[in-house]
Amino acid sequence: MSPSSIHIAHWGEAGPTVVLVHGSARGSKIGGDHHFSAQRALADRGWRLLVPDRPGHGRSPAPAYRETPEGDAGWVVDLLGDGGHLVGHSFGGAVALAAAAQRPGVVRSLTLIEPALQKLCTDDPRVRRFVMRIVAAQLFSLGGTARVRRFAKLVGIPSEIRGGNGPDELKAMGKGLARIEVPSAATIRTQLAAIRQAGIPFQIVEGGWNPAFAAVAERAAELGGGRHHVIPSTHHFPNIVSDEFNQLLDGFMRDAETARAA
Question: What is the pTM of this model?
Answer without folding.
Answer: 0.96
